[in-house]
């Protein structure tokens, strides 16, 4: 007897902090104007997606002492955008990336509890950490937290926030039927937390929200990150988007859940995914190639190479060969606020490898950078992409995908119109929302469900 088909989860990443957007396309719109967020969110909701996902940029990136203006410059506040979107959507989940290194638990818990109330139970929190002293300077805490302690603080941060969410219990909240005002006993909202990173006590001033707590996402891929997710998260925003890598990651993370008394269905694996959609597979391949060429301009290629060479390469021709000079291995890096800096620590070894690859294939600097970048996750006609997505989910390479289109705000439109109806026709994706909250969309139990607490104990 074959096992029942898994239901696919789909979400949309508003591409505001990334290197995937094609700025030169005339259809590319603003990343700040609210109309862009509205179009993107309402398209996702029309397609019955689980949620919209916002990344977070806390400081403008710099390179060579100047603002890095080849990527997003400027980023509206996450809570402001999500709160505004709550008023123009009815069902779509609203997921925000909020840093646990430069914020405080009371502040963040209050903001998410408020968003959950405003949206009728659709809030989610992507809990991230920051290793970056450059970003920390905006908070007057540059370098204050050693990198090895970031998950220690994050775990205590989340645990403390949960204590605040849980400080209001359902049986402590009463409403005066005549006036409509809240009545509560003196203990409702009271909290005391003493730990390594936080020593706070007081009274939380936002009553229990529709979901009890926001849905918790985690985006780390290190061993520490996987353990953090297995212990505390409801979903992982993963970068493993090939079938084999996805299956390995899926198996590894799901097996960790038992250590924390959790079932495999209590944590969803949702990789980021890009796509190139056209009428035929051949046309989609051509589109994918063209998009990759547009994503990596000559200037972008040079700036990317500087991440490894750690020196000004503006005099080099992006359509010419790689530099003969070696990288500068000094500690002071030319790029600030770029995550790739940490990926390229052994600069001499990487430079040798890149030179060898470029020589073997006769690649220019731009050719190399284009090839180093990931190909689109899904390339093909609507049917090809739908079948591939379904194959990934049914073969336990993921539980669904967070789609990152290369155009804003219209990049989801064609996917919603052509791919989603096929998944619905095959019975692997919803035709209507099952309930009012994001936990309903994701198949996650409410924290106050006693049966779920017993199963997790």
Automatic annotation (TrEMBL):
It comes from the Bacteria. One of its GO terms (molecular function) is monooxygenase activity. InterPro entries: Diverse_substr_monoxygenases (IPR051260), Luciferase-like_dom (IPR011251), Luciferase-like_sf (IPR036661), NTA_MOA (IPR016215). The keyword Cell cycle does not apply. The keyword Flavoprotein applies. CDD domains: Nitrilotriacetate_monoxgenase. Residues 25-395 form the Luciferase-like domain. Pfam families: Bac_luciferase. SUPFAM superfamilies: Bacterial luciferase-like. Keywords: Flavoprotein, FMN, Monooxygenase, Oxidoreductase. Belongs to the NtaA/SnaA/DszA monooxygenase family. This is NtaA/DmoA family FMN-dependent monooxygenase.
């Amino acid at each position: 007897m074959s096992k029942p088909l898994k239901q696919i989860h789909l979400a949309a990443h508003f591409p505001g902090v990334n290197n995937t957007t094609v700025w030169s396309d005339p259809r590319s719109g603003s990343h700040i104007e609210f109309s862009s967020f509205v179009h993107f969110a309402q398209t996702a909701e029309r397609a019955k997606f689980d949620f919209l996902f916002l990344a977070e940029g806390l400081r403008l990136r710099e390179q060579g002492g100047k603002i890095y203006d080849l990527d997003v410059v400027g980023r509206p506040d996450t809570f402001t955008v999500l709160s505004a979107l709550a008023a123009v959507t009815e069902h779509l989940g609203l997921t925000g990336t909020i840093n646990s290194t430069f914020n405080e638990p009371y502040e963040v818990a209050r903001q998410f509890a408020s968003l959950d109330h405003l949206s009728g139970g659709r809030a989610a929190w992507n809990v991230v950490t920051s290793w970056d002293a450059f970003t920390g300077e905006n908070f007057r805490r540059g370098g204050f937290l050693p990198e090895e302690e970031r998950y220690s603080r994050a775990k205590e941060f989340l645990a403390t926030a949960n204590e605040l969410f849980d400080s209001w219990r359902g049986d402590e909240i009463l409403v005066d039927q005549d006036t409509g005002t809240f009545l509560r006993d003196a203990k409702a909202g009271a909290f005391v937390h003493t730990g390594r990173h936080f020593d706070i006590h007081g009274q939380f001033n936002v009553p229990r929200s529709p979901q009890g707590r926001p849905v918790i996402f985690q985006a780390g891929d290190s061993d520490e990150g996987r353990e953090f997710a297995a212990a505390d998260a409801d979903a992982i925003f993963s970068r493993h988007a090939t079938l084999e890598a996805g299956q390995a990651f899926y198996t590894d993370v799901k097996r960790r859940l038992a250590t924390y008394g959790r079932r495999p269905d209590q944590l969803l694996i949702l990789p980021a995914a890009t796509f190139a959609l056209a009428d035929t597979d051949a046309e989609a391949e051509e589109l994918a190639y063209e998009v990759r060429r547009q994503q990596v301009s000559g200037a972008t290629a040079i700036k990317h190479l500087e991440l490894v060479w750690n020196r000004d390469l503006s005099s080099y021709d992006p359509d010419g060969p790689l530099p003969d000079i070696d990288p500068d291995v000094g500690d002071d890096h030319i790029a600030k606020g770029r995550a790739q800096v940490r990926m390229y620590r052994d600069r001499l070894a990487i430079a040798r490898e890149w030179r060898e690859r470029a020589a073997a294939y006769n690649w220019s600097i731009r050719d190399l950078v284009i090839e180093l970048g990931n190909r689109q996750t899904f390339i093909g006609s609507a049917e090809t992409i739908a079948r591939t997505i379904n194959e990934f989910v049914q073969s336990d390479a993921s539980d669904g995908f967070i789609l990152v289109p290369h155009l804003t705000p219209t990049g989801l439109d064609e996917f919603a119109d052509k791919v989603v109806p096929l998944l619905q026709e095959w019975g692997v994706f919803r035709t209507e929302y099952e309930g009012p909250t994001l936990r309903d969309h994701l198949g996650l139990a409410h924290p106050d469900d006693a049966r779920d607490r017993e199963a997790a104990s």
